[in-house]
Design goal:
This protein is 16% helix and 40% strand. It is of the alpha+beta class and 128 residues long.
Length: 128
């Protein structure tokens, strides 16, 4: 793992972000964004486009990234752990002003595809 940290998100939320750098130069970095059990703000799913843009901007990451959304068991309020590959319609950043006086970077519309833990392990090249 290259780095891991807690990233703020809209409405006083926070998520765990882990960035895995590829072994092969042509492969994209993998970013895993995990919902935290004590998050009181916007969910990792609802803020996907904004969070991806912020990670790309703050790390000057090449695009496209391989983005994985992770809901650990303790973050699902009694449900089971899930992983989903998040693919965006485009990766150019845009500035939006959803609220008066506030601007946010975001990228294209997200779509999700369910993954299992074994597939995520293959993507990052190590145990998750």
């Amino acid at each position: 793992m290259a780095s891991g940290y807690i990233h703020p998100s809209p409405r006083s939320g926070k998520r765990r972000v882990r960035i895995y750098l590829p072994e092969e130069e042509l492969d994209p970095p993998v970013v895993i964004r995990s919902e935290l059990p004590n998050n009181g703000g916007t969910s990792v799913t609802y803020a996907a486009e904004q969070l991806a843009a912020e990670v790309i901007r703050s790390h000057e990451s090449p695009t496209p990234l391989a983005e994985v959304e992770h809901w650990p068991e303790e973050g699902t309020r009694g449900g089971e752990e899930t992983f989903e590959l998040v693919v965006f319609s485009r990766y150019e950043e845009e500035e939006r002003a959803p609220y008066l006086g506030e601007t946010r970077a975001r990228i294209g519309t997200a779509t999700w595809k369910r993954l299992d833990r074994a597939a995520v392990k293959v993507l990052v090249g190590e145990k998750v």
